[in-house]
Amino acid sequence: MTDPTTGRLRVDGATLHYEVRGSGPLLLLIPGGAGDAASYDGIADDLAADYTVASYDPRGLSRSPLEDPRSTQRVVRHADDAFRLLRLLSPDAPRARGRLQFRGDRRAAPAHRPSRADRTRGGA
Fold first, then answer.
1. Count of structural domains, the chain
2. Pairing mode, strands 95-98 and 52-57
3. CA 43 from chain center: how many Å?
4. Mean pLDDT of 59-64
5. Which of 10, 12, 32, 57 is the most buried (most CB within 10 A)?
6. Does position 5 have pLDDT exceeding 90, yes or no?
7. Is residue 121 part of a domain?
8. Which residue has the higher pLDDT, 117 or 57?
9. Which of 54, 64, 49 is nearest to 5 (CA)?
10. Which residues does 27 contact at the CB level (< 8 Å), separation at least 6?
11. First to last CA, the chain
12. How far apart are CA 34 and CA 7, in angstroms?
């Protein structure tokens, strides 16, 4: 396994931990449920042969603390977090893949920032 480069991104109400490895077009892996960046350790190295692979701990999970742990979590805020990571890591249109946990999750990011999402079906 290749050790990823890690970073932190300050977003509204949280600080996100992210990991990057490989080179090529950016591929953002979005964990679902209670998953975090480590959820993709098994495939990230393989994908890194062709892509710059980024994964992250969603707000409030693992190494991405909330400023206020009692704050209400909304899908649109999580979608905005993914958009901010995409904007930070790639000036070009990257691809985003994720695991779907409930209806509407897949459409949150494309609906919120349609110009920045690859409308790929299904989860990783």
1. 1
2. unpaired
3. 15
4. 96
5. 57
6. yes
7. no
8. 57
9. 54
10. 47, 51, 52, 53, 54, 94, 95, 96, 97
11. 19
12. 20
With respect to residue 108, please indicate whether it lies within any of the assigned structural domains.
Answer: yes
Pick the more confident residue, 48 or 102. 48
Residue 117 CB-density burial (10 A; 0-12 exposed, 13-18 middle, 19+ buried): buried
The arithmetic mean of pLDDT across residues 40-63, rounded, is 95
Domain at 105, CATH number: 3.40.50.1820
User: Would residue 36 count as lying in a domain?
Assistant: yes
Residue 105: domain span: 5-116
DSSP state of 73: P
Residue 118 in tokens: 């690859």
Instruction: Give the position of tokens 């892996």.
Output: 29
Of 114 and 1, the structure prediction assigns the larger pLDDT to 1
Residue 15 has pLDDT above 50, yes or no: yes
